[in-house]
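subagent[fold] <- orchestrator: predict structure for attached chain, return tokens only, no commentary.
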Amino acid sequence: MKAHEGDVLRFTGRTLGMSEHHATVVKVLGRNGEPPCRARYEAGHETEIFPGAGCVIDTPPTHRSPVGQPYREGR
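subagent[fold] -> orchestrator:
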């Protein structure tokens, strides 16, 4: 799973009643976008995280190329 600064990590609820939550990647600490990364949660706290199977990376529209593919050059 590769992440870039500004990407949003979306964690799906894996337990009944657990809601989905989000965190924004502040800094990638691994090589070439690999974990770990520093992320800021919606409530404002930051932590170092290794995203797991229940995590999806959403790339903001400002990081996408004109054809809708994630823009990754030069990062």
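orchestrator: received. Logging for downstream: The radius of gyration is 13 Å. The beta strands are 8-11, 21-28, 37-41, 46-49, 55-58.
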